[in-house]
């Protein structure tokens, strides 16, 4: 039996598990969206597999990504996290995770993070045959980044927000030949 086609060439079991079971599946849960937003921000400048390997450490360090708990973090927590080898120790990214938790909690008054993120879903486009054909950002990810910044979020640029859109199934950028293509049920990939 042939090996399934995946969107990234890898033999890393963690990466394979992420691709096959999680990436691109629709997520509308606030905590999950917050977690993925934070992890996408931490990934900036690093490989995604680095973040996946440290994910258990991130979950432990950031109260399992409970926005209310992280919103209460203060200077002592930032200092603690800067010493935590189980995560990526970048002060700006740590502080952004806390700021984003506070903004996530505040956003509940206006429909919540899931509503805002999913309201920026692009129109359907044509599937692509290689990752090199995929855009790094789209007008909707630019608009989402701008709106999130307006609402007090940090480390949420248009490329990072497009990666979030892919991760949570807002767009389906699985390659045409991937065994996961269409599994999100969303079937949208920007033109």
List keywords for this structure.
0% strand; 191 residues; 9 helices; mainly alpha; 50% helix
Model description:
- The protein is an all-alpha fold and 191 residues long.
- The longest helix is centred in the middle third of the chain and has 17 residues, at 91-107.
- It is built from nine helices and no strands.
- Helices cover 50% and strands 0% of the residues.
- The radius of gyration is 16 Å and the shape is globular.
Strand coverage percent: under 5%
Output the radius of gyration: 16 Å
Q: Name the shape in a single word.
A: globular
Q: Kindly, what is the distance between the CA atoms of the first and last residues, rounded to a whole number of angstroms?
A: 33 Å
Q: Major β-sheet, in short?
A: none
Structural class, judged by helices and strands?
Answer: mainly alpha
Topology summary:
Elements: H1 13-21, H2 30-43, H3 48-61, H4 67-71, H5 75-82, H6 91-107, H7 113-118, H8 139-150, H9 158-167
Helix pairs in contact: 2-3, 2-6, 2-9, 8-9
Task: State the gist of this model.
The protein has 191 residues and is mainly alpha-helical. Helix content is 50%, strand content 0%.
């Amino acid at each position: 039996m042939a090996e399934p086609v995946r969107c990234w060439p890898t033999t890393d079991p963690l990466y394979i598990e992420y691709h096959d079971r999680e990436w691109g599946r629709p997520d509308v849960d606030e905590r999950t969206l917050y977690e993925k937003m934070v992890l996408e921000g931490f990934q900036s400048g690093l490989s995604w597999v680095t973040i996946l390997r440290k994910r258990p450490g991130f979950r432990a360090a950031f109260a399992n990504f409970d926005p209310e708990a992280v919103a209460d973090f203060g200077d002592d927590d930032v200092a603690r996290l800067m010493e935590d080898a189980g995560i990526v120790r970048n002060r700006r990214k740590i502080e952004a995770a806390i700021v984003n938790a506070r903004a996530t909690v505040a956003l509940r008054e206006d429909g919540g993070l899931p509503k805002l993120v999913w309201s920026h879903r692009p129109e359907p486009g044509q599937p692509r045959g290689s990752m090199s054909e995929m855009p790094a950002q789209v007008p909707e990810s630019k608009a989402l980044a701008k709106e999130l910044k307006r609402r007090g979020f940090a480390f949420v640029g248009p490329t990072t927000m497009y990666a979030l859109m892919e991760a949570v199934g807002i767009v389906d950028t699985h390659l045409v030949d991937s065994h996961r293509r269409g599994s999100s049920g969303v079937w949208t990939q920007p033109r």
